[in-house]
Amino acid sequence: MLGYVGRRCLLAIPTLFGVALIVFALMRAVPGDVVTNLVGLQGNVSQERIAELRRMFGLDLPVHVQFGQWASAALQGDLGRSLRTGRPIATDLALRFPVTLELTLLSLVVALAIALPVGVAAALNRGRWLDHLGSVFALLGLSIPGFFLGILLILLFSLRLGWLPPAGYVPLAEAPLANLRHMVLPALSLGLILAAATARIVRSTLLEALELDFVRTARAKGLSERAVVLRHALRTALIPVVTVVGLQFGQLLGGAVIIEQVFSLPGVGRFALEGINLRDYPVVQGAVLLIASAFVVVNLVVDLLYALIDPRVRYG
Amino acid sequence: MAEGFVAAPGEAAAPRGRNSRALRVAFGGAGGVGAAIVAVVTLAAVFAPWVAPYDPVALNPPARLQGPSAENLLGTDQYGRDTLSRIVYGGRASLSVAGASTLFALLVGGALGVLAGFYRGWVDGLIMRVTDVLLSFPAILLAIALLAFLGPGFVNLVLAIGLVYVGPFARVARGAVMTVREELFVEASRSLGSRDWRVLLRAVLPAAAAPLIVEVTLRLAYGILAEASLSFLGLGTQPPAASWGLMVAEGRRFLSLSPWATVAPGLAIMLVVLGFNLFGDALRDALDPRTRLRR
After folding, report:
1. Residue A130 belongs to what domain range?
2. Which ipTM did the prediction report?
3. Is the whole-model pTM more than 0.90?
């Protein structure tokens, strides 16, 4: 097991390196270059200021040196400073990451709380109306864009019924209840969509598990249907579900960018979008690097979890 | 001539029988509904000038934020522009971006995957490492990041969404090629002295086509969602052009006054994506009998 953990962790290093390389390359993908682009916005800027900005971005150095400096600084937690506010980007990201993390975790809870019962009910009622209802739910969930679901929820629960706030954020530490009230709709918008995809998988893996020999044995020895399903079949069925949910959790980080915008939540995604609108390139770079790295780490954790619950993986 | 020697008529007809069964699965039932939705929306977008009742960018301030009426079937937006006409024209942005980016991903990703699966070795290793890195970004984030630095515009939008889906296409193509490369007919083509590219084009590619076709329909659904999301964020199609995601974003500010300008384009996105999903699922069942058993 330790050997597997070691190997898998080592494998994450070239991936992280590749991610860093792409994020670094993005800055160089700006038409012209970053400095001419920024200067173009402000009109008359002296040649000295332009040279100074070039030095600040390290554009006067060879590319591989630029990457080396940038990557080693990033490894030490230095992501540079915002062009607009002058604040260290790492500090701002540290303030905003908990918001994004809370949103994704709550969405995951919503997704599982809905997907497990829906998927199990659909599998046990295969071909009947409950199953069809489940399929319709899954198809609608796969077809609705997250931002539109969010707006529909705002329309219903905030504007029509007035039950929940349409936007805004209260820190969890300040007022946990108010924080939750602000998080319900965003978490639902993100979680319902993940629930749709997950319910489909729970259903199909449970159906497969129900046909396995040991389930027949469990039935034959007279266990109640409830025990057969919950204690035997579902446990086996959940193994692939863990992988898929884990991978989806990473995608939630991407979806959070959009949902944060819909509900004005001050998370990493909104920070990145503000950076984009202000052409604050280092901010965008830092935020993208953070989310992508988190994604790599989540995938790593999922793989390790998978090896933990399914011993075959370790030796495969 | 002995009876048994001549290929029985039934035998020759067998593939056709299989194809018609596949067609029935793909276009019958829900798949047919999906295909019909996609066809209607595509036709409406192509023939937008004849279908749309009004000019999509014609302002009419006195009639702004109206609900549905006989003149404006889906109401008007904050500038008095007809929502239905904008949805019809908006289909052009959504479908063309989704189509072009899927085509890009199919050509680039498909080619990379076929090369990787056919040659194996270091080519395979290199290509798979590159797609691994592309896949280690949340899809929408990579597209957002690319647009943030490239700037908006049709070509950049297509590139951003297309690049994101190069990885999945490469994987599907590679997997398909690897299952057929050891098959007898590939071996046969090789032993007849065909060059690599001929073996690839004539023997390998047709066999790998089915999973790629399924992937195309499902990626088109994602492409529509991606274009809508990026336009919603202001990174995709730019005003005053009509795009469904952009319309949702613009109408949103007047949600309490007139929800129609927001809800109608949102429903349009949902409907088309649903169409592609229904059709893609049915197509997958038709082309790969194994998945059908599991449903």
Report:
1. 89-204+237-315
2. 0.85
3. no
